[in-house]
């Protein structure tokens, strides 16, 4: 039986006291334990950022790559190891600055990856600069006169790109986040879980109190129909309240790998089919 102790790392977190990363860190471990997935049966992909420092704070197969590149690494791992849950984690700055193209193509391709976005509306590791999700006009260390650019709405972006699983959580509600991560792991395709993460050190404009006063769980409303159109509408920044929960899911979703007709009935993993070639003779041509 998998227990939370299986995921305990001897390395202690270095996040600021009260950081929302603690909540996501614990929710991720709890979700994996509740799914009965052991640390040797999952791959976690991180990049650079406060959240990326989670990579060695959790005892599991974890890869820490370049800024904004956790999604392509996760896609590759997933394609090479069918059947193993692969989870990518990244911040809003990394995902929507350096990594935007990966986000778009992962949604288009519907890779079998669960993506947890840590959206704290700032670059925390580099001491509080604006990201594409920072509200327009907001002052931060790197924008003392206020952000000029239009604010990106990542949930609406994912929905309009055709994402097959779109959820929103916030770090004031860990049980909800655990539930959504578990649902994301079981989804066939790219599951996008935006987590509104409080950052008490640099984000005093959408702190835990601000978020707690505005969020509501759409799944608590039996009348809510999670169509793409409804999800786009309730995700608007113009709304006074912030919708969380499983906003949209295509239950008929087919992942990229499962759509590869020539892989039908092949039971071996792609990684086991790679042959090691000697490149010695080839290299001689260039010597
Ligand atoms: Fe967390 Fe913000 Fe501190 Fe980074 S800067 S560890 S996101 S509170």
Offer a concise description of the structure:
The chain has a single domain, classed as Rossmann fold (3-Layer(aba) Sandwich), CATH 3.40.50.970. An 8-stranded mixed sheet has the order 2-1-3-4-6-5-8-7, sandwiched between helices.
Overall description:
- The N and C termini lie far apart (56 Å).
- Helix 1 (21-34) crosses helix 6 (174-186).
- The longest helix has 14 residues, at 21-34.
- This protein is of the alpha/beta class.
- The chain contains 9 helices and 8 strands.
- The relative contact order is 0.13.
- Helices cover 28% and strands 15% of the residues.
- It has one domain: 3-Layer(aba) Sandwich (Rossmann fold).
> Which ligands does the model contain, each kind named once?
iron/sulfur cluster
The counted number of beta strands is 8
Task: Report, as a whole number of angstroms, the end-to-end distance.
Answer: 56 Å
SSE order, as H and E? HEEHEHHEHEHEHEHEH
What's the arrangement of strands in the largest beta sheet?
2-1-3-4-6-5-8-7
**Per CATH, what is the topology?**
Rossmann fold
Kindly report the oligomeric state of this protein: single chain
Overall pLDDT level: 96
Tell me roughly what share of residues is in helical segments.
25-40%
User: DSSP helix count?
Assistant: 9
Beta-strand portion reads 5-15%
Shape descriptor reads globular
For CATH, the homologous superfamily is named as Thiamin diphosphate (ThDP)-binding fold, Pyr/PP domains
Provide the number of structural domains: 1
Radius of gyration: 20 Å
> Pairing-aware structural class of the strands and helices?
alpha/beta
CATH class: Alpha Beta
Indicate the low-confidence ranges by residue numbers: none
| Largest sheet properties | 8 strands, mixed
